[in-house]
Amino acid sequence: MKANINNIREKISLACKNSNRDENEIFLLPVSKTVDVKKIEEAIDLGFNTFGENKVQEILKKYEYFEGKIKFHMIGHLQTNKVKSIIDKVELIHSLDRISLLDKLEAEAKNKGIVVNCLVEVNIGKEESKSGIFEEDVLDFVKEVSIRDNVFVNGLMTVAPYCENVEYTRVYFKKMKSLFDEISKLNLKNIDMKILSMGMSNDYTVAIEEGATLIRIGTSIFGKRDYGVVSK
Torsion-angle region of residue 202: left (phi > 0), alpha (psi -120 to 50) or beta? Predict the structure, then answer.
């Protein structure tokens, strides 16, 4: 795992040099879905304290196991009926993608007297298989967030269409950065464009070159996933 992480760090550094960016601007989020706690403990020993998960049940199990010693990001699709169980257990929700979820987050956060931090998920490739708001609808959506009190948007997230040639993903990341910058200029209440979450194991170098501030890396850190294994 250490060698994997060192390799990723080197590629981050090169991507930043190619785009005249400071590599300290890039937050590397290990995606630990299906990864057992022993591997997570190994990653903790290598300096990580925040992990991305995509299933509520798995977050709850790992949250209990680690007793608050590490932080979790919810990066997968979030059902409204699961909001209550994790709203105070995750540092950031990457997948705010519809009004019904916004309303539920607002209600549950208000009940708990907290503010929930989110990223708006954008379906930048308009793929039927993926969640997220279409590019042309994002501005209206963030304006809806701005009239709430207990939901705060810290930026945007996307999963770009998979391409064998990663250069073909560049156009999608450029669109995301343009949208990110456009929203930044609006100065809306409860909206602060600090995080642009885009780029995974296959395309993170291109994402960084086009403005990503957070990359979500699973396979390149932990190896090929075994979907028969959960967290025990």
Answer: alpha
Instruction: Tell me if residue 152 falls in helix, strand or coil.
Output: strand
176-208 pLDDT, tens digit per residue, is: 999 999 999 999 999 999 999 999 999 999 999
Query: Which residues fall within 8 angstroms of residue 47, CB to CB, at 6 or more apart?
Result: none
pLDDT tens profile 159-176: 999 988 999 999 999 999
The DSSP secondary structure of 35-59, one letter per residue, reads --HHHHHHHHHTT--EEEES-HHHH
pLDDT band at 230 (very low <50, low <70, confident <90, very high): very low
H, E, C per residue of 65-124: HHCCCCEEEECCCCCHHHHHHHCCCCCEEEEECCHHHHHHHHHHHHHHCCCEEEEEEECC
Residue found by looking up tokens 């885009």 in the block: 198
Give pTM, 2 decimals: 0.94
| β-sheet bridge partners, residue 53 | 74
- How many CB atoms are closer than 10 A to CB 134? 12
- For residues 59, 61, 66, 67, the Cα torsion angle rounded to the nearest 10 degrees is 100
